[in-house]
Write a structure and sequence with these properties.
This protein is of the alpha+beta class and about 675 residues long. About 45% of the residues lie in helices and about 15% in strands.
């Protein structure tokens, strides 16, 4: 009984059990855990002395069931024995170790050196855990990683307490930040180390700078793309894939290896310029692109195979490529400058050569240039005639076929005064075969619809052909037609009473020596046909005038005389105004104005000489004065020598009024 009582009153055991319970509570309640030994001890017994605490920690149950990080240290972190891995992984423990070892004079320390500071049971777990964290680059913010050169082999990593900055670590951070800023403002997404050093204002050969390049964070977040004798190309690690397939990167490699003296290279040569682990992805992308599209930025693909590409730097084009570009530019310029007054388009081949300054004595160069882009892609032949070819931009080829300018140039090139006409079937043979059918369809349609053009007269010839007559060599009837219109315009402008006139009067003024056949044909063609109206075509004495003067010609005495000449007969010597206005053959534009015109003449006593009017049953009748029957009754007889042009009398059947005409 005495032994049991003594055990119950053992202070070390009672304190140990209470501290174990308190540790379990902290772990389960997610309070600070692992925790400092002195801190948890004071939770159990606030007035415990340092000597008692160290004594209690050295005996059961604390000695067997609690694991301290440091032996005989009241400030040591402690955990329950089963939580030893948690203690080893504690960032608080790592911070404590660094505080013990690091200083401004010794800012970094190897992991094994930290391990030796720990209680032996913790050392193995601590070393294993933090070795993995270092490998995975998952260190807490307060600690960095420094690569320290070893006497043999690769540099060894050491943990750096960041509260004691290292010059090369600070330089590493500065270089990384500068690189990030430069790449954010660049389309290339890579730069040379020389550019980086200049932007960061550091010396390339400085030992701190060289050390910074192999120090975190610069080391793990950047990637070297290529190393040459003079520089290295750098980018951020997360941009490597993007850079390898970018045009700026590809062109930078190409421009570095190519020159005017050596403008060609191979894709395999560009690949070997990169660090080894990047060569395969770079080559795979650009090889696939070249094989699928046969086009790479800034290059000409000279040869494409399964294993390689032969490239030519576009900065140093071949002579035929330069000439092809010049030819295309001259063609574009001619199209822009083309006008009706100065047609420069299509462009003849010899004219293109003259503008580019290339002699025809270089046929091999010319043939090669014609087959090269951009001329081969952007130019099309629209006419082939012996040694002469005409070119247009490919986009204009279709519209050129229906161009009046194009037709005019074809006619001017083939027609002469001795041979002013050509058939559509002959013209289309001058075009490339793919364009012939479309060209024929366009101009045959124009001819069928009777469309008019200033460059030529079109007329249907046979079943499927069209006859063109060059407007420079008009037919006699076309020339006379224009002259007649011009003469009539001058007569109208003179306002001397000569307008309107008869066709005979107009012809006498315009061209008295014109033959009858030519004169008859002239009125059937432009511009006479569409501009001039003949009021009463069945009479040679009919007045003529412009279409817009149809009302004026209705008031012409010439019209009344011409119509009456066809209506008055020996057996029918007087006609009504209505009969005159409705006379067969009277032009439709003139007829509506005839009634008013005659009534105005009668009212104003201005009937043409030799004509008189009678009003019978309220209708005016017109007749020739010479046709009036001389009555036997003297009361009705009017001697002609009296100079009277009318008379009045009565009849058992009607009442008549004779309107006098103008005295002659």
């Amino acid at each position: 009984m005495a032994k049991k009582s003594a055990s119950r009153s053992n202070p070390a055991a009672e304190f140990g059990r209470a501290l174990l319970a308190r540790l379990a509570e902290r772990r389960d309640s997610s309070a600070d855990y692992p925790c400092r030994l002195i801190e948890v001890a004071q939770d159990v017994q606030a007035d415990i002395s340092n000597e008692d605490l160290l004594a209690f920690a050295g005996v059961a149950p604390l000695k067997t069931k609690v694991v301290p990080a440091f032996s005989d240290d009241m400030e040591s972190l402690v955990v329950l024995k089963e939580d030893m891995e948690r203690l080893a992984a504690s960032e608080t423990l790592l911070r404590s170790l660094l505080q013990k070892q690091c200083s401004p004079q010794v800012p970094h320390v190897p992991l094994p050196a930290l391990k030796t500071l720990l209680n032996k049971p913790v050392q193995s777990a601590f070393f294993r855990h933090w070795t993995n964290r270092i490998r995975e680059q998952q260190l807490p913010d307060f600690v960095g990683l420094v690569q320290v050169a070893a006497e043999k082999g690769r540099p060894k990593p050491e943990l750096h307490d960041r509260q004691f900055p290292l010059p090369h670590v600070e330089r590493s951070e500065h270089l990384l930040k500068t690189l990030q800023q430069l790449l954010e403002s660049s389309d290339a997404k890579f730069i040379s180390d020389r550019q980086l050093f200049d932007a960061a204002s550091v010396a390339a050969d400085d030992s701190v700078t060289q050390s910074a390049l192999t120090t975190e964070p610069f080391l793990s977040q950047t990637k070297v793309l290529r190393i040459s004798e003079s520089s290295r190309w750098l980018t951020l690690l997360n941009l490597v894939d993007e850079v390898l397939i970018s045009e700026p990167f590809f062109l930078s490699l190409l421009h570095e290896v190519c020159s005017a003296d050596s403008p060609e290279t191979r894709l395999s040569a560009l690949r070997r310029m990169l660090v080894k682990d990047l060569q395969m992805p770079f080559a795979a992308h650009w090889m696939a692109l070249g094989q699928s599209s046969e086009s790479l930025p800034g290059t000409q693909l000279l040869k494409v195979s399964k294993s390689d590409l032969v490239l030519r730097d576009a900065r140093f084009p071949r002579p035929e490529d330069v000439l092809s570009q010049k030819l295309r530019d001259c063609l574009t310029e001619a199209a822009a400058q083309n006008s009706a007054e100065n047609p420069t388009y299509p462009v003849r081949w010899d004219e293109l050569l003259r503008k580019t300054g290339v002699a025809e004595s270089e046929p091999s160069l010319l043939n090669a240039a014609r087959k090269k882009a951009p001329f081969a892609d952007d130019a099309s032949v629209v006419r082939i005639q012996q040694d002469s070819e005409w070119f247009v931009q490919t986009c204009d080829a279709e519209s050129m076929l229906g161009s009046e300018s194009f037709l005019g140039q074809l006619l001017h090139d083939g027609c002469t005064a001795e041979s002013p006409e050509v058939r559509l079937s002959e013209l289309k043979k001058q075009l490339p075969r793919p364009l012939q059918a479309r060209f024929s369809d366009i101009w045959r349609t124009h001819a069928e619809l009777r469309h008019t053009f200033a460059i030529a007269d079109l007329s249907i010839s046979g079943r499927n052909d069209v006859l063109f007559r060059d407007a420079r060599f008009p037919r006699l009837e076309a020339t006379l037609s224009k002259r007649l219109v011009d003469t009539l315009e001058s007569m109208k402008a003179a306002n001397d009473g000569s307008y309107p006139c008869t066709f005979r009067q107009l012809l006498q003024r315009a061209q008295p020596d014109a033959g009858v056949l030519v004169a008859n044909s002239a009125v059937m063609v432009e511009p006479y046909r569409s501009r001039i109206v003949t009021a009463f075509p069945s009479s040679a004495e009919s007045p003529i005038a412009f279409l817009e003067d149809a009302e004026q010609v209705a008031h012409s005495p010439l019209l009344l005389t011409a119509v009456l000449s066809s209506l008055l007969k020996p057996e029918d010597q007087a006609v009504t105004i209505a009969a005159i206005a409705g006379a067969n053959g009277l032009h439709s534009l003139v007829a509506p104005h005839v009634t008013t015109a005659i009534e105005n003449m009668i009212t104003a006593r201005q009937l043409p000489p030799g004509l008189s009017a009678l009003q019978i049953r309220k209708k005016w009748h017109l007749f020739r004065t010479t046709d009036a029957i001389k009555a036997a009754d003297a009361d009705w007889y009017i001697p002609e020598q009296f100079g009277m042009t009318g008379f009045m009398g009565k009849s058992s059947r009607c009442t008549t009024k004779i309107a006098p005409c103008n005295a002659t």
